[in-house]
Amino acid sequence: MNITFGKTMNQKAFSLPALLLSSILAVAAQPVLAQKTAKTAVNPPPSADLGYTIQAVQHGLTLNGTANVQWRAGDGRYSIASETRASLLGKILEAKSEGAIDANGLAPQTAVEKRFRKGATTTTFDRAANTIRFDASDETFPIKGGEQDRNSVVWQLATIARSTPARFKTGSTISTVVASQKNASVWRFKVGKSETLQTGLGSLKATKVSKVIGDDDKDQKIEIWFAPGKNWYPVRVRFTEPEGDTIEQTISSIAPR
């Protein structure tokens, strides 16, 4: 009995230090876990006013112009307001997007577009009903998380690059639902290699991201260059229509706000 009792006491004696060690290790691990969480937190680019020069070919006519983008992010909210002007024609596009910033990144609430000689259209992200609505059509689309409008998707990609760099490696594909003026569909973007661009801010290293277009796809082609050394701001954006018309905007100024 004494031998058995002695073994039991030894087991109890060793169990207390073991528990203490386990608790110490658990406490020590907490800062590491906190650091890991912080690294994956949503991190949109800082607020700024961005200026761009425009070169466009429309119906065989070459046009020059300017574009201004007001990007704001803070206190769990974001807003984008852009205006594009072309020589001879004046204002050809106004676009706005605003909403919250959640675990998926940008979470639009409303998106407004007004194109040259056309009325404004509004796309509403009804978060209470989990439904995207369009005032230009009777279509609806369910909200499941991560959906974007055509203006916010560029800044969502920049947010992904800053928040989860592993998703922005060359060859990676990023898919997201994008709402346009009348409906919504899945857009796929492929991350390309780093390139050197000549801009109004000098030579900039930028990562090219292209919207994936099928051989028979008649959708608009979009190419975006993001500059890691400039907070991953979009420093060049090129739109190409199926018939060949193009609009290319290149960064000329960045003013932090």
Structurally, how many domains make up the residues?
2
Q: Let me know the largest β-sheet.
A: 15 strands, mixed
Order of helices and strands: HEEEEEEEEEHEEEEEE
Strand order of the largest sheet: 8-7-6-5-4-3-2-1-15-14-13-12-11-10-9
Total of helices: 2
The secondary structure category is alpha+beta
Report the radius of gyration as a whole number of Å: 25 Å
What is the straight-line distance between the termini? 79 Å
The outline comes out as globular
Protein name: DUF3108 domain-containing protein
Organism: Oxalicibacterium flavum
Signal peptide: 1-28
InterPro entries: DUF3108 (IPR021457)
Structure, explained:
With 257 residues, this protein is of the alpha+beta class. The protein folds into 2 domains: 1-39; 48-256. Helices cover 19% and strands 52% of the residues. It contains 2 helices and 15 strands. The protein has helices at residues 2-39, 152-163, and strands at residues 48-58, 61-74, 77-86, 90-102, 105-115, 121-126, 131-134, 140-142, 148-149, 173-179, 184-199, 202-211, 221-227, 233-240, 246-256. A 15-stranded mixed β-sheet has the order 8-7-6-5-4-3-2-1-15-14-13-12-11-10-9, with helices on one face. It is globular and about 45 Å long. It starts with a helix and ends with a strand. The relative contact order is 0.14.
